[in-house]
Design a protein that fits this description.
The protein is of the alpha/beta class. It has 13 helices and 8 strands. It is 40% helix and 18% strand. The N and C termini lie far apart (55 Å).
């Protein structure tokens, strides 16, 4: 086996068909790029469906290792995947996210340019009405027109936030933002593995919906890590129905924990105001640049609200 550059960690719980489609799609990355510089580490987080049988039935053309652990939540499952990974970079993907066939060739180029950066891809949300058809096609090894998937996208507030934050990155050398940690999503992160030795892994106290990804990346930021957004690294999230009450309840609990964990710093209250639609992306970044003595950068006018995601206008008020 050639040296492994990327370990793709995919955690899954009771989503056998979606996971099987994701793993089947990975074969196309090998075919398009003759690329064997990645491995896939699947962590089955206590699934009770036919996930293990579905994986065994696949014809997989790349290195893969599958681990079935006791159900312990996403953070613990990702941490298990990190420990088992062999690559120089750990790439987190979800069991409902598929890669464009050219993803790794473009990511390799980006990593060679910025080897110590955290890398964020261009993630598009595919409308839930289209997802079952795409899963079926992948499982039947039918062709997918990736270029036309953009036509099936459905707006996702978090995916858009990161694109807006890095909108002008090509117009300035060494473009650096002070809030990249606040707009990342865990299913779209590529992190140099050695960072986990100095910054720790995902916080296992954050369970369900919540900022486990922002928490990890906040620690990376505090240690000096920078991030790059790679518009040519295309991924597609196959959307599905959600339990909005569960999102609201767990986000509330986890946001309180996140802020209190770091003794309620100003930037985390600003993060709260940003996610509640009370502070624009640009103002949020400017405030954090002032706080950390960083150079301000151009950012488009953009605001978001958790109402777009959880169905609630505000998911957490300031905690005294």
């Amino acid at each position: 086996m050639s040296e492994i550059m990327f370990s793709v960690v995919i955690c899954s719980y009771n989503k056998s068909r979606s996971l099987a489609a994701v793993l089947t799609n990975m074969n196309r990355l090998v075919k398009e790029n003759n690329d064997s510089s990645f491995e896939v580490v699947v962590v089955v987080d206590g699934s009770t469906d036919d996930t293990l049988e579905a994986i065994k039935a696949l014809s997989i053309q790349y290195p893969i290792r599958v681990f079935h652990i006791e159900n312990s939540g996403l953070s613990n499952a990702r941490n298990f995947g990190i420990e088992k990974s062999l690559g120089s970079y750990v790439l987190f993907c979800d069991d409902d996210v598929i890669f464009h066939p050219n993803y790794f060739s473009n990511l390799t180029t980006a990593v060679q340019q910025y080897p110590e950066h955290v890398h964020i891809g261009n993630l598009t949300n595919i409308g839930k009405e289209y997802s079952p058809e795409i899963v079926d096609k992948l499982l039947q090894n039918e062709d997918i027109d990736y270029d036309k998937l953009e036509e099936k996208q459905n707006y996702h507030v978090f995916f858009e936030a990161v694109k807006q934050l890095f909108f002008y990155q090509n117009e300035q050398d060494d473009f650096t933002t002070a809030i990249w940690w606040a707009v990342v999503t865990g299913g779209n992160l590529c992190i140099p593995k050695h960072y986990f030795e100095t910054c720790g892994k995902f916080d296992s106290n954050i369970k369900g919906w919540g900022p486990e990804d922002a928490d990890l990346c906040y620690r990376l930021f505090l240690k000096g890590a920078k991030a790059a957004y790679n518009s040519r690294c295309l991924l597609y999230h196959l959307d599905h129905p959600r339990d909005l009450k569960a999102i609201y309840d767990t986000m509330t609990k986890n946001a309180v924990y996140f802020i209190k964990k770091y003794q309620k710093p100003k930037e985390l209250y600003s993060y709260l105001n940003f996610t509640n639609g009370k502070l624009s992306l640009c103002d949020f970044n400017d405030m954090c640049c002032d706080l950390y003595g960083m150079k301000k950068v151009n950012i488009p006018s953009f605001s978001m609200s958790m109402k777009d995601y959880s169905g609630r206008e505000q998911f957490l008020k300031h905690q005294s």
